[in-house]
Amino acid sequence: MREDLAADPAYTIGLCQAAHSRLLSTVAVVTDEQVRRPSRLPGWTVAHVLTHIARNADGHVRRLEAALRGEDLPRYPGGPAQRASEIAEGSTRPAAEIVSDMSAATEQLEETWARSATAGWPHHDLLGSDHWPTIASPSRRLREVEMHHVDLGMGYEPTDWPEEYVEWELPMILATVPGRVRQRDGIHDLVAWLSGRGAAPATLELGPWS
Question: Which CATH number fits domain 5-161: 3.40.50.300, 3.40.50.150, 1.20.120.450, 3.60.40.10?
Answer without folding.
Answer: 1.20.120.450
